[in-house]
Amino acid sequence: MSDITINDVAKRAGVSKATVSRVISNSSKVSKKTREIVEKVVSDLNYIPNSAAQNLSQNNSRIIGIVLNSEDLNPLLNNTFFSTAINAISEFLIENKYYTIYIHCNNSKKEKEYIDFLVKSRRVDGLIFLRNYDDESIFNYLEEISFPFSIIGKPNHAEKYLWVDNDNIKSAYDVTKKMIEQNRKNFIFIGGSMKLNVTKNRYTGFINALDEYNIKFNKEYLINAKFNEKDAYNKLLNIVKQNNIDAIFTTDDIFAIAATKAIESINRTDIKVSGYNNSFLRKYVEKDFLTVDINVEKLAIEASKLVLKKVKKEKIEINYSIVKSKLIEK
Amino acid sequence: MSDITINDVAKRAGVSKATVSRVISNSSKVSKKTREIVEKVVSDLNYIPNSAAQNLSQNNSRIIGIVLNSEDLNPLLNNTFFSTAINAISEFLIENKYYTIYIHCNNSKKEKEYIDFLVKSRRVDGLIFLRNYDDESIFNYLEEISFPFSIIGKPNHAEKYLWVDNDNIKSAYDVTKKMIEQNRKNFIFIGGSMKLNVTKNRYTGFINALDEYNIKFNKEYLINAKFNEKDAYNKLLNIVKQNNIDAIFTTDDIFAIAATKAIESINRTDIKVSGYNNSFLRKYVEKDFLTVDINVEKLAIEASKLVLKKVKKEKIEINYSIVKSKLIEK
DNA sequence: TTGAAAGCGCTAACAT
DNA sequence: ATGTTAGCGCTTTCAA
């Protein structure tokens, strides 16, 4: 490695390193002539500034951390959410001269410690949380030390933080309404833990639609399942067998697929099913179902924009961004 | 933000910052007493060293870059390879006090430029390439400037670089042999581009097994497909319909699924199918097929180990690592 | 418009 | 065993 420094450039160009710095940062008043000379040398020597030196003197890192808690990993592996989000974020940030560091907290207890280390060592300028958790203490902490971060998924204290999300109440309402209009009345609801806002909100939208049509929902048909196929499958099968079910609303295509296979296994393909995420997995079941495209790219980019604004201390008019989701029928 | 520095700690502990530095780096001889005093202050003030300053004076970054070329993105999205690899790498590296930066080259032409920037700006100490490409000029360049990197997937110039891979020739041989032993003779081979070493090697192993049993392979049954279901599906269907096929060897579960659906559609489920990657997608087809678990975690970790050794200038006995894959039958 | 010089927070060689 | 000091490579004030 040659390791050209600003001094080499300065010497060769016959100027001071301050001038080179000015040309590099593309700012301050430098005469056109000087600029051209310096630029020529920079290009000849293929000079690229040492980032550690820049970071030290500017007290930043130009790195945004993407944080994933390991509890989220399993569901995400069955999903393109993770890859899509990371790719979208990194693509967006790199256009803005920021890099993305990826932190996977494989140990929930260590999360605070990890993040504290990152923040205090100034290794990152900001953070993006891939998910909202029930426990928001880490958000609270970061807010206290006024460290920039944004969250994908509306947090409980939505007014305090920067976040992006779909309107889950509305999308669930729309999906449910669609099924009701197809003469469905006897619903099962399958979702993840009710501790997750996403489950709560979709449940709310679901109930709203039923209320509007004066359909009442039997709480015994509310299934909170683990994110693996078998769990939802088994619970569901019991209910369907013994009851007059004609529709199954689920909060994830994974559940929807489980549901589809369950009803196929007992030849009840007349039952309507809906899911979320517009997963490519839908290709792998015979019977298609309703789903919702949550637009992960957009969520990722909006979250990046928000945290970047905060980092750059730009004015933030609205502390959140609602990304439109889309009902997919075929 | 308080931004405690080494000076604050030194002052408070009544020692010089050199001593604090020694305590931090946990090295040199510091008296037990002094160490305890300093450690107390460090913990009281919750001091964490500024990474930019450390990086600048040590001329490193403690960051390893994971590079993905966008050409690879599409196939990877249908796969857990990407998420699994990134998570395994980052988990391993963080235990070794390294961070992972993720670079997605959305523009192949810019790859060299991006990487050059990362390297020259000293933003990364090493790189891990998630895939091997036919064009190895970037590897060649990095080798010339002796910048540490490793590759997941055996490169053409295997002796020159650090890499990890499975023994694809052997695994393909094993799979094929297994099918032959089940009295299969008339094979179709479906793989990606023959420019990819992985395709070439699996094809070689496939042919080796056939040769051993004196079965000859009709080259017209060699399908090089794009990584989307339809492509393989259509080509395949034509061949199967008109010929006496009894087995389909494929280099990816995605292809295997396409194949399975194709043969199901014409009621030829008597045909044996094999794939690669032990994908969770297998759950979503009726008829199961043979597959190979390539052990992505291990590949990722071995690649991390190799590049880390290079970064730390440790002696590297063998420049590659062959990770055992596993034939999965049910 | 340009340069000199201080300083960012740390490490490491040297001295004691 | 500990302190002094000179960098690391940049940015940024201040002066000219």
Provide the β-strand percentage band of chain A.
15-25%
CATH topology of the largest domain in chain A: Rossmann fold
The span between the termini of chain A is 56 Å
Assign the CATH architecture of the largest domain in chain A.
3-Layer(aba) Sandwich
Q: Helical proportion of chain A?
A: 40-55%
What sort of overall outline of chain A do the alpha carbons produce when their principal axes are compared? Answer: elongated
Write down the oligomeric state: homodimer
Protein name (chains A, B): Sugar-binding transcriptional regulator, LacI family
GO molecular function (chains A, B): DNA-binding transcription factor activity; transcription cis-regulatory region binding
InterPro entries (chains A, B): HTH_LacI (IPR000843), Lambda_DNA-bd_dom_sf (IPR010982), Peripla_BP_I (IPR028082), SBP_2_dom (IPR025997)
Keywords (chains A, B): DNA-binding, Transcription, Transcription regulation
Walk me through the structure.
The structure is a homodimer of 330-residue chains. Chain A is an alpha/beta fold and 330 residues long. The first copy, chain A, has 3 domains: 1-40, lambda repressor-like DNA-binding domains (434 Repressor (Amino-terminal Domain), Orthogonal Bundle), CATH 1.10.260.40; 61-165 and 296-323, 3-Layer(aba) Sandwich (Rossmann fold); 168-293, Rossmann fold (3-Layer(aba) Sandwich). Helices cover 45% and strands 15% of the residues of chain A. Chain A is built from 13 helices and 12 strands. Chain A has helices spanning 6-13, 17-24, 32-45, 51-58, 73-77, 81-95, 111-120, 137-144, 168-181, 197-212, 229-242, 253-265, 296-311, and strands spanning 63-69, 99-105, 126-129, 149-152, 162-165, 187-191, 222-224, 247-250, 272-274, 291-293, 320-322, 326-328. A 6-stranded parallel sheet of chain A has the order 2-1-3-4-5-11, with helices on both faces. In chain A, strands 7-6-8-9 form a 4-stranded parallel sheet, sandwiched between helices. In chain A, α10 links the parallel β6 (187-191) and β7 (222-224). In chain A, α1 (6-13) packs across α3 (32-45) and α9 (168-181) runs parallel beside α10 (197-212). The longest helix of chain A is centred in the middle third of the chain and has 16 residues, at 197-212. Chain A starts with 5 loop residues before the first helix and ends with a strand. At the A-B interface, α4, α5, α6, β2 and α7 of A face α4, α5, α6, β2 and α7 of B. Chain A binds a DNA duplex (16 and 16 nucleotides) through residues 5-7, 15-19, 21-22, 24-25, 28-31, 34, 49-59. Chains A, B: This is Sugar-binding transcriptional regulator, LacI family. Chains A, B: GO terms for molecular function: DNA-binding transcription factor activity; transcription cis-regulatory region binding. Chains A, B: Keywords: DNA-binding, Transcription, Transcription regulation. Chains A, B: Pfam families: LacI (PF00356), Peripla_BP_4 (PF13407). Chains A, B: Residues 4-58 form the HTH lacI-type domain.
